[in-house]
Amino acid sequence: MATDKSCSADAACTWTTTTTTTLEAGTCKFKSGDALMKALRKSWGCNANAALPTSCPCLGHNNQSSFPCPTTGLKWSPAVGERCVSAIVDRKKGWVTGNAIMSASYGESCSSPNHETSSLVCTSTHPDQAEFGIPAGSCSEYGDGYNEAMNSSSWCVGQKFCFVDPCNCNEADIAVSNYFPASNNNGAPAYYSFATCGGVNAWKTDQCANFGSSKSCASDDACMWDPDVVVPTPPPSPAPQCVFKTGDDLMKGLRLTWGCDAAE
């Protein structure tokens, strides 16, 4: 049987290895119904003995401290006198987050515009755009790298939502806001619901689907691992083997064996 050591003994041969990827059976899904309600009410510290809520009113705010919007440096134009809040938003490709500024009215009610003004995914002008507000190339067709329609991904528009109190909401799609996590507001995260406004949380569904293992899926209280979903098994990779060198690799190895001048 050929081994790495025996293969290297022949200057005309080289050892090749491949990595076999094993996928965990199942998929990560957005929690719904009792599973979601139970997890969120426990993590929020709701009164376990209290009666379950029968409605889900909007809070009327996003639980953030507001301030006068700056007049420069924004890729969107706030109205005169409008107030803003700080948020943690996707700013680079691959959902790399960073600090951003958004309208203080974001998520106040079902009638709020809720524009995704600071999200790269929602405002990019090209699939290869790597960073918020920076064009993917120098071509004029990419503009300034900011899509003012804020509809670069389907989930960015068309669905209404508002921030809610999870202890006082009976909807089954409650989720923790990525924009306003606990670290952004004195340890108190913001929760939202699309269902209470008649909308569908396509964003969270897509986000849960990006978790490729039960461990990563468990990192988000709003997601749950479904082991019954069949994941296609990739074809087996060939085992490591000793193969004949070709081209430059072969010539270099043989010349060293023959004692040729390495500089020739």
Oligomer: single chain
The 3D shape can be described as: globular
The count of strands amounts to: 10
Distance between the termini: 36 Å
Summarize the structure.
The strands form four sheets. A three-stranded antiparallel beta sheet has the order 3-4-5, with no helix packed on it. A three-stranded antiparallel beta sheet has the order 6-8-7, with no helix packed on it. The protein is α+β, with helices and mostly antiparallel strands and 264 residues long. Helix content is 17%, strand content 17%.
Account of the 3D structure:
With 264 residues, the protein is of the alpha+beta class. The protein is built from 6 helices and 10 strands, in the order αββαβββαβββααββα. The protein has a 3-stranded antiparallel sheet, with no helix packed on it. It has a 3-stranded antiparallel sheet with strand order 6-8-7, with no helix packed on it. It has a two-stranded antiparallel ribbon with strand order 1-10. β4 and β5 (96-103) form a beta hairpin. The two termini are 36 Å apart. The model has no long low-confidence stretch (mean pLDDT 77).
Topology overview:
Layout: H1 4-8, E1 13-16, E2 27-30, H2 33-44, E3 67-68, E4 83-92, E5 96-103, H3 120-123, E6 162-164, E7 175-176, E8 191-193, H4 202-209, H5 214-217, E9 223-226, E10 241-244, H6 247-257
